[in-house]
Amino acid sequence: MSVIILGIESSCDDTSVAVVKDGVLLANQVAGQKIHERYGGVVPELASRAHQENIVPLVDVVIKDAGISLNDVSAIAFTRGPGLLGALLVGTSFAKGLSIALNRPLIDINHLQAHVLVHFIKHLNQQNRLPEFPMLCLLVSGGHTQIVLVKDYLDMVILGQTIDDAAGEAFDKCAKVLGLGYPGGPKIDELSRTGNPKAFLFSKPKVSGLDFSFSGLKTSFLYFLQDKMKENPDFINQNINDLCASLQHTIIEILMDNFRKAIKETGIRNIAISGGVAANSGLREAVGELGKELHAQVFIPEKWLTTDNAAMVAITGYFKYLKGDFATHDLPPLARMPF
Ligand code: KG4
Ligand code: ZN
Q: Quick one: which of 54, 209, 212, 258 has the most CB atoms within 10 Å?
């Protein structure tokens, strides 16, 4: 009998619902929340309210898109954490209610594990090239920056992670200083295309092992701009493309230096990127180059699967379902949640 998983994601500012049948994605919809743009960052209370408004209509649309009825669903998978507590609470409560109403099991999902498992989603009418284990995944998002050793679907170990800001945070905070608005990552990416990545040199942090640090870069970028603007108040406007390209280049170099180290140390030759920052065109190119350099198989998700989505929640739910790993109805959402 087929296994049909309904996935629900509400950890930050995207409400998303998806259906996966026997590991194949049937439907996925994301309702983004434009409201946060005017505040320059995600406002938790507004995010929770928007999730509440979006979640029921999204389930309705996704069920229709998938060509199933709610009664066909084998289990409901929801993001338990990490994320914004109020936002997680909406998805968690909805999933629990639906699980009781349909009398179907509940599966709790770690959002980070889900970002990694995006690589194992099969797509209809496509040649699916799936990674083999072990795999090394560079997980880069707005809240996390980690090198993950993936031994099996549900067996992952963090080899290195940021000791302060995440890579996405570095993009977003520096973009804010440049007056580019929120979220800044995609805007820096766009403006970088016509800039010179070597126009300005920003120093890279010295961190031991496979850990990362981005807070120093953010501060030195700010001081650099303040100095330049004392001489020329229009410095940012006149150099915006070169500034974006140089900053992006530095962030990518910091990421690639450690990823290269991890690949060499472990000898693993299946490498992947995931998380929102994996949408970055420079990073996608750099990891492709790294794969060629180290003769590794490279896995890069389609762009729409890098940022938050429920397809990754549903596929993780599918693997947990096969193991019989279900949640009880008393599980609370968790703002922090280790692997
Ligand atoms: O995974 P995600 O959607 O949410 C979290 O779990 O954090 O990642 C969002 C992050 C934001 O920091 C956003 O600026 C960044 O991903 N991002 C990008 C790009 N697209 C999204 N950063 C750089 N270049 C992009 N094209
Ligand atoms: Zn995420």
A: 212
Q: What's the gap in Å between 275 CA and the centre of ligand 2?
A: 6
- The protein residue with its alpha carbon nearest to ligand 1, atom 23, reads 185
Structure tokens at 21: 């049948």
User: Same structural domain for residues 149 and 122?
Assistant: no
Q: What share of the chain is helix, strand, coil (3-state, %, to 5)?
A: 50, 20, 30
Instruction: Give the chain's domain count.
Output: 2
Asked whether residue 123 falls in the same domain as residue 19, the answer is yes
168 lines ligand 1 (CB under 6 A): yes
Per-residue pLDDT of the chain (339 residues; tens, 9 = 90+): 899 999 999 999 899 999 999 999 999 999 987 777 877 778 888 888 999 999 999 999 999 999 999 999 999 999 999 999 999 999 999 999 999 999 999 999 999 999 999 999 999 999 999 999 999 999 999 999 999 999 999 999 999 999 999 999 999 999 999 999 888 999 999 999 999 999 999 989 989 999 999 999 999 999 999 999 999 999 999 999 999 999 999 999 999 999 999 999 999 999 999 999 999 999 999 999 999 999 999 999 999 999 999 999 999 999 999 999 999 999 999 999 987
Report how far ligand 1's centroid is from the alpha carbon of 172 (Å): 8
Side chain identity at residue 274, one-letter code: S
CATH code for position 89: 3.30.420.40
DSSP-derived pairing of the beta strands 106-110 and 75-81: parallel
| Residue 338 belongs to a domain | no
Q: How far is the CA of 116 from the centre of ligand 2 (A)?
A: 10
User: Are residues 262 and 150 in contact, defined by beta-carbon separation less than 8 angstroms?
Assistant: no
Our answer on whether the CB atom of 145 is closer than 6 Å to any ligand 1 atom is no
State the closest ligand 1 atom to the C-alpha of 183, by its place in the atom list counted from 1: 14
φ, ψ for residue 79, nearest 5 deg: -75, 120
Which of 115, 95, 128 is closest to 327 using CA atoms? 95
Residues around the ion ligand 2 (C-beta < 5 A): 141, 308
- The Cβ of residue 235 has, within 10 Å, a number of other Cβ atoms equal to 17
